[in-house]
Amino acid sequence: MQPRTTPRYLPPVTEERFWQLVEQNIVLSAELEVDTARLQQALAALPAEEILEYDEVFTRLYCASYARSLWGAAYIINGGCSDDGFDYFRAWLIAQGRETFERALQDPDSLADRCTAEVECEEMLYVADRAYESATGRQMPRRPYRYPDLGDGWDFDDLAEMARRYPRLSARF
After folding, report:
1. How many domains are contained in the chain?
2. Which residue blocks in 26-126 are alpha helix, DSSP H?
3. What's residue 11's pLDDT?
4. Is residue 135 part of a domain?
5. Higher pLDDT, 149 or 167
6. Which domain holds residue 45?
7. How far apart, in whole angstroms, are the C-alpha atoms of residue 161 and residue 147?
8. What is the dihedral of CA 28, 25, 125, 55, to 10 degrees?
9. Dist. CA 46–CA 60, nearest whole Å
10. Residue 63 lies in a domain
11. Residue 80 domain-assigned?
12. CA-to-CA distance for 116 and 118, rounded, in angstroms?
């Protein structure tokens, strides 16, 4: 007779668990470059539903970071910032962990304490997709999402305006 095993129970991928997965599995270099391989492997070991839950939280945070104030910070740090560049910057920001992410949402100029060079991480955008495909052999279903309105803008090339809005980032970059 086979011994009975208790199925392993993992809680749903809440925002708290999302940040645990990111912070325990993302490898950052000294230059803050992101290696997503461990995170992708950790996600691929989860049931498909949990990978979808992870992606749902990622998407919610990714959309929450779609703010003109962060775009301005990315523009300074990266010496310019296209639409795609802003996508990669926000993915990089999530990969930095909860504390850096939440602080930057409240005060984008706080990134002057963190950044030393251009920062982007396109790979972070595909971690859940690749993990899901690895775990199931199928493409992850796409779910629609909406960005918030950016509101009124300002000229990112206006150095005086940027220095007023981002004094520490402007001084550093």
Report:
1. 1
2. 37-44, 48-64, 68-77, 83-95, 98-106
3. 61
4. yes
5. 167
6. 15-141+160-172
7. 25
8. -150
9. 20
10. yes
11. yes
12. 7
